[in-house]
Each structure stands twice: as structure tokens, then as C-alpha cells.
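From the methods appendix. Each design record in this collection lists the discretized structure first, followed by the designed amino acid sequence. Records were kept in a plain field format so they could be parsed without special tools. The example shown here is representative of the layout used throughout.

RECORD:
C-ALPHA CELLS (382 positions):
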């Protein structure tokens, strides 16, 4: 099987007064594991359905390997879809479910047996060929759906939140299997999910969507470490967001005055000139927490004093919500890398010192006005 390049140009789609997609353009490379990530209602499933041919756009084009397929029905696009609901035939065996697309095409029986065996081997279900769907686990049903989608040898496989019905541990196991299948077949995977961990763990690249638009496209590392918008910083994992005016700029370091946290150094290049209003993101794992002030902050160091509002012990790490004297909140992750760190020495109401480097702070989009600092994910009422 060979993958295809998928090109999206100026796609828009409305349902009544609701604009599901707004002038979306995107290039997906041959053989990529590409994820469309965003909250419910952001337009990711609508975009997938437009690529598949289940919906027609109001405007724009869908091209596969340079060929305009916008007006073609789904069976003419060399795309197959794996749905969240599996869509298996309950009265057919696993073998016949996988064989169904070949039966429709009137493929000779010997070829059917050969191809079905090959695809059941691929998804490790060769011993379950004679079972009905009701006799399978959720993960096994999903593998049947994947084998059936692949047996037509599509150049693009579309996956619409295929793991959302599974429990957390099985979902992690299936992610590894899905990634292995992608590596083996080599075709283009376009994966829709609202789960950030899923997208980060398997994708070559990710498009983060909100409000019918694509906000950022990049590798998992790019998306996580260098969010280009406040929404992306908030949506991908936990983060601390500060906002304020740049009061000075020197040698690539901007000093941002946040009214609740104080002055924050950020390595920003030309992104944050003096006098501008900016938002700054710092990931919780980048911040060090201690009961004593750091011995040496250095020219790039940020140091903030606060009090522990809430310590949360999670075995492999502790999570601390810290309130600053100005009324701001920061969240900090402390990994338990050694046995002695498994017993937290920082407790509720302790006075603590937080420190991080200006290089670990990232300027996201300018807000134009002063905004109180916020923490994405879990938060505490003040």
C-alpha cells in the first residue's frame, strides 16, 4: 500500500447558521500519521467528512495526489474511514466482516481468503476469524474495523475518534498497535481526536483546531513546547499563562510586568518589544519548587515566592497549586525520580520559592490588554 498527499484549500462548510469550517487550508504529506486535534464542535470531524466525501463543502477544494476529488463520491477517492462506533455487521463473523468490501467488488474466493488472512494477521485477530462481533472485546472490534478499512488498499485511512469508546488502559494499548499498523502499511493516516495525549503520542504532525479554524500545525514537540496561540497553550496539557506589558527589552530578553505575579523574564527575540502587551506560557514541569530561595538565579532566572494552596500526590509526581502575594496562581509538577522523593516534603500552607529560566517561557499571541494570569486544565477558586 502506498500513501497519498492530501491538500485542503480554502474549505468552508456551514450547517444552517452554524459555520463549522472557515476557509481551512492544510497540506498532509504522503505516509504521515496526521492528527486533527480540538474540542467538541471545533470542526475536526466535519473536515474529516469533507476529505472522505460524506459532505460537500460550501467552497474550497480537496485534492489527493494533486487530483481534485471535491465532487467525487467516497468510493472514488481511495479513502476509507474507521468510525467511532465500529459499524460492524453483528450477524457476520470476523472473517466475513473483513471480507465484506471484497464481496461487494465480486473478488474471487481464493483472493478473498488470501487477503482476509493477511489483514487478520496484521491486526492479530487470525485466531478469532470465526467469532461474531458480540464475542469480541472493544479493542478487538476496533481491530476488525481497521482490517476491513485497510483491505480495499486505500491510500488514505481516516480515523474518527476510533478509541473514544475504550477504557483508558485499552486505549493506550490500542494506540501502540495503531502506530505499529501505520508503520507496517505505510499509508497516510488522518486521525481525529479531542485527546491531547493520544495526538502527542502517535502523530508525526498535529493540526490544533478551534472555532472552525486551524490555529497551529506542527510536530508534537513544536505544538507542546512552542504554542503560537493562547488557546493552543491552554488546550495542550497544563500550562501557566501570564499577561502584561513589556517594560524593558535587552539582548533578546523581555521583562513582562504581570500585576499578580510580578516581573517575568522571557527569551523572546523580536516577538515582545518594549511597550507591547503579551501573553507568556510556562509549563508546570519547567518550574522548580523548593522551601528555600534558589542559591543563584542568574541573569535568565525567574524567582517567585508563594504559598502552597493545594498539594496533590500522584505517585510518580506531586502537583502543587501555589498562590502568590499578588493573588496569582501557578501550578508546578515535581517528578519523583528517586525513592526519597516519593514522600513529599512540601505540604499545604508551606511558604515556597518557584524558579524557572527565561528560556523556558514562551510568548504566545499578544492580547492587547492586561489579563489576569490563568492556569489551564485544573484550577482552584480564589
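DESIGN:
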Amino acid at each position: 500500500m502506498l500513501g497519498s498527499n492530501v491538500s485542503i484549500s480554502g474549505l468552508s462548510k456551514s450547517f444552517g447558521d452554524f459555520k463549522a469550517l472557515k476557509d481551512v487550508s492544510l497540506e498532509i504529506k504522503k505516509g504521515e500519521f496526521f492528527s486533527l486535534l480540538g474540542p467538541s464542535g471545533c470542526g475536526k470531524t466535519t473536515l474529516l467528512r469533507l476529505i472522505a466525501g460524506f459532505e460537500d463543502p460550501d467552497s474550497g477544494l480537496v485534492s489527493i495526489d494533486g487530483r481534485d476529488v471535491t465532487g467525487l463520491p467516497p468510493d472514488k477517492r481511495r479513502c476509507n474511514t474507521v468510525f467511532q462506533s465500529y459499524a460492524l455487521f453483528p450477524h457476520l463473523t470476523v472473517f466475513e466482516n473483513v471480507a465484506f468490501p471484497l464481496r461487494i467488488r465480486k473478488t474471487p474466493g481464493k483472493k478473498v481468503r488470501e487477503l482476509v488472512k493477511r489483514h487478520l494477521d496484521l491486526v492479530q485477530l487470525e485466531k478469532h476469524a470465526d467469532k461474531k462481533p458480540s464475542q469480541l472485546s472493544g479493542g478487538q472490534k476496533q481491530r476488525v474495523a481497521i482490517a476491513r478499512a485497510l483491505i480495499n488498499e486505500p491510500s488514505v485511512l481516516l480515523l474518527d475518534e476510533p478509541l473514544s469508546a475504550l477504557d483508558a488502559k485499552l486505549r493506550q494499548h490500542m494506540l501502540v498497535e495503531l502506530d505499529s499498523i501505520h508503520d507496517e502499511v505505510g499509508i497516510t493516516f488522518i486521525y481525529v481526536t479531542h485527546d491531547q495525549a493520544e495526538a502527542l503520542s502517535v502523530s508525526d504532525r498535529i493540526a490544533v483546531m478551534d472555532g472552525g479554524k486551524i490555529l497551529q500545525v506542527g510536530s508534537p514537540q513544536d505544538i507542546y513546547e512552542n504554542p503560537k496561540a493562547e488557546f493552543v497553550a491552554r488546550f495542550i496539557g497544563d500550562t501557566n499563562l501570564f499577561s502584561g506589558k513589556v517594560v524593558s527589552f535587552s539582548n533578546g530578553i523581555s521583562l513582562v510586568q504581570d500585576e499578580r505575579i510580578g516581573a517575568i523574564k522571557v527569551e523572546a527575540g523580536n516577538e515582545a518589544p518594549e511597550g507591547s502587551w503579551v501573553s507568556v506560557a510556562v509549563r508546570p514541569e519547567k518550574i522548580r519548587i523548593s522551601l528555600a530561595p534558589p542559591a543563584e538565579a542568574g541573569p535568565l532566572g525567574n524567582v517567585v515566592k508563594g504559598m502552597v494552596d493545594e498539594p496533590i500526590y500522584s505517585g510518580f509526581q506531586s502537583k502543587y497549586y501555589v498562590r502568590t502575594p499578588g493573588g496569582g496562581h501557578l501550578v508546578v509538577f515535581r517528578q519523583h525520580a528517586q525513592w526519597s522523593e516519593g514522600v513529599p516534603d512540601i505540604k499545604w500552607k508551606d511558604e515556597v520559592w518557584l524558579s524557572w529560566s527565561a528560556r523556558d517561557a514562551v510568548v504566545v499571541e499578544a492580547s492587547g490588554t492586561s489579563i489576569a494570569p490563568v492556569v489551564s486544565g485544573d484550577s482552584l477558586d480564589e
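APPENDIX NOTE: The CA atoms of residues 12 and 21 lie 5 Å apart.
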